[in-house]
Design goal:
Layout lengths: L2 H26 L4 E15 L2 E14 L22 H23 L1 H19 L4 H15 L2 H16 L7 H11 L8 H30 L3
Antiparallel strand pairs: 1-2
Length: 224
C-alpha cells in the first residue's frame, strides 16, 4: 500500500474513532449532543445529528453549552456541558485521545510509549525547522510505512496525533481540558474567551508549519 494512501487511511480511521468515542462519552455522561461531524468542508451526507463532510482532516462534536447558545426557561441547563461537574468536563475532551492511545500502545507494544513521549519533542522541533528536522522525521515515517504492516503504521501515526491533540492549546483536546481545570468547574468565566484566543495561536502555528513541511516533502518526493 503506498505511504500516501496509508496516511489518508490512518487519518480517516483516527478521526472516526476520535469523534465517535467523544460523542458516545457525552451521551453516557448525560450531556446533550447537538451534532456530530466527521470531516470538514461541505456536507456530503446528513443522518439525523450526524454529518459526513468532504475532507477527513478533522471533525467535531457540538454539545449543548450555554457559552455557545442561549437557553430558555423551558430548556434547563442540567444536560449542558458547561454545567456538568468538573470531572465530566475534564474527562470528555480527553476520552477520544485516551482510547486511541490505549489502542495504539496495545498494537505497538513496549516501544509505543517511548515513541509517544518522543512525539512531543518531535512536534516542536519539526515545527521550528520545517525544512530540515521536519523533513528528516517525515522521511523516517515514510520508511516505517514501507517496511511495516498497516496496523503498526496506524499505531505509530495515532501516537503522534494523540501527542499533538494533548498539547495545551485551544482547539486541541489538551487545551480544552486545561481551560476546564482553570475554570474550576464554573459554567462561565469572563477571561476564558480571551485566553482561548491566545492559546489558539501556538497550536495554529505548529499546524501550519507542519503543513508547509509536508508540502515541501511531497514536492521533493515528486521531483518538482
Amino acid at each position: 500500500m503506498p505511504p500516501a494512501f496509508q496516511l489518508l487511511l490512518c487519518l480517516l480511521i483516527f478521526m472516526l474513532i476520535h469523534i465517535s468515542v467523544m460523542a458516545a462519552c457525552a451521551m453516557l455522561l448525560g450531556i446533550t449532543v447537538r451534532s456530530i461531524s466527521y470531516g470538514v468542508g461541505p456536507t456530503l451526507l446528513t443522518l439525523g445529528k450526524m454529518k459526513v463532510k468532504l475532507l477527513p482532516l478533522a471533525g467535531n462534536v457540538v454539545l449543548k453549552d450555554t457559552r455557545e447558545e442561549t437557553l430558555y426557561d423551558d430548556d434547563p441547563c442540567l444536560d449542558a456541558y458547561n454545567f456538568q461537574p468538573l470531572w465530566k468536563q475534564f474527562v470528555l475532551p480527553l476520552s477520544g485521545v485516551v482510547v486511541l492511545l490505549a489502542l495504539s500502545l496495545g498494537i505497538m507494544g513496549a516501544s509505543g510509549w517511548e515513541r509517544f513521549v518522543a512525539a512531543f519533542g518531535q512536534i516542536f522541533h519539526g515545527a521550528l525547522a520545517p525544512l530540515s528536522t521536519a523533513q528528516e522525521l517525515l522521511g523516517e515515517g515514510e520508511t516505517f510505512a514501507r517496511t511495516h504492516g498497516f496496523a503498526l503504521v496506524f499505531a505509530l501515526f495515532s501516537l503522534k496525533l494523540c501527542a499533538f491533540n494533548l498539547l495545551p492549546f485551544a482547539g486541541l483536546n489538551g487545551g480544552q481540558a486545561l481551560l476546564t481545570l482553570a475554570r474550576g468547574g464554573k459554567p462561565y468565566v469572563e477571561w476564558e474567551e480571551t485566553a482561548a484566543k491566545w492559546l489558539l495561536l501556538p497550536g495554529l502555528a505548529i499546524l501550519l508549519a507542519w503543513a508547509a513541511a509536508l508540502a515541501v516533502y511531497c514536492w521533493r518526493a515528486l521531483g518538482l
